Structure formats: structure tokens, C-alpha cells
Amino acid sequence: MPEEITVSFAGPFSWPGTPDTPCVYNADQARKIGIYLWTVSLPDGHLIYYAGETGRSFEIRLRQHYEELVSARYHVYSATEFARGEKIALWPGRWDVKDRKSDDECEANCQRLSESIREMMLVLRLFLAPTSCDTRTRRRIEAAIAQPLYAVQGKVGAFQDRGVRYDPRMPGEQPIACVVNSPMPLLGVPERFWA
Q1: How many CB atoms within 10 Å of residue 99?
Q2: Bridge partners (DSSP) listed for residue 125
Q3: Along the 195 residues of the chain, how does pLDDT read in single tens digits?
Q4: Which residues make beta-bridge pairs with 8?
Q5: By the 8 A CB rule, do 51 and 60 touch?
Q6: Angle value at C-alpha 14, between 55 and 68, nearest 5 degrees
Q7: Three-state DSSP class for residue 181
């Protein structure tokens, strides 16, 4: 019988300064490790923008992401469209596969983009799933959640940034059955999947 792991997401949480949603840094789960999601809330559920994993606490990893966001090193999208699950690019950041900007370029444009970055961050919602599994298993689960989203038709697939590196199950690795629990529907994520 293959191993089965339950991935229980808590949330939604928000970045600091977002009204009406608990701040992710104040969440009990923030001091744990595991899988996390960045989403936007749509009428039929949460649309995933990014899936990640961390072996450091969520708090430490998300503070790193926060620094990258406010430093214009990540993609910046128009918040109005982003909140509807559409991406209108305002800035490619330093990780874009086609138009990568240098740290100096990001720094030079940070002030100009600061309000757009703030508005985009107010739209994002975060989910945390603490896990006790090893690093390899955590990375397989992250990949099993994220990679299939690219193939989903419509908003789910179109909302994914290209070029994100994931470490899926390799040939010869025993499949791991996963069950997802979430307080809100996560669009494109099945209740059960194999990692």
C-alpha cells in the first residue's frame, strides 16, 4: 500500500497591511515548514498564482518573498486585472524567462513601481500547509500541485508564470498518494493526486 500524505491548507492569510484578512506572519502555522500557495480570490474559489515549499519556517521564507516583491525583483501586474485572474504585466522583474532585469534595473524602477506593487500585494491571499515530511517529499508535493496547473484550460493555466523550476517525482521513485484539505476551493487542485 503506497504512503498517503494529507496536505491541509490553512488560510486565507494576507501580506501586512491588508484589511479584513489575517496577516500571514501572525498565523500559528507561520512558524512551521511545508507547502504554501499564493492565490487571488474569485467567486468560485482561489486561483493559484504560485505554489512553493520551504524547509525553513513559512515566516522566514515569506519574509524573503516579501523583500523580493517590494524590491521589484518579481513580476508586477496591474492589481485590478490581477484580482480578476488576469495578468497585465507592468514589470518583468529579475526572474522573467524572456525579459530578465538586473538587480540595478529593479532598484532603479522600485520607487516608480511601489504603488503598483503594494496594490498587487493587497490582492494576494496566502495558504499554508504545514508538513512533517522530508525535503524530497515536500518538493514532489509542491511540483504535483503546481505543474498540472499549467495544463488547465482558461484562467487556471493562463495565471501561471512560466519558467518556475519544480522537482517532480523521478522515474523509479515510489508514488505518494496525497489528499488535499482546504477551507476554500483551490481552483485546478484535485482533492487527491499522486506526487
Answers
A1: 9
A2: 39
A3: 457 899 999 999 999 989 899 999 999 999 999 999 999 999 999 999 999 999 999 999 999 999 999 999 999 999 999 999 999 999 999 998 899 999 999 999 999 999 999 999 999 999 999 999 999 999 999 999 999 999 999 999 999 998 899 999 999 999 999 999 999 999 999 999 999
A4: 181
A5: no
A6: 60
A7: strand
CA distance 172 to 140: 13
Distances from the Cα of 126 to the Cαs of 18, 27, 104, 160, in angstroms? 12, 11, 29, 16
User: What letter represents residue 129's amino acid?
Assistant: A
Reading the block at residue 85, the C-alpha cell is 485572474
Using alpha carbons only, give the angle 76, 54, 184 rounded to the nearest 5 degrees.
70
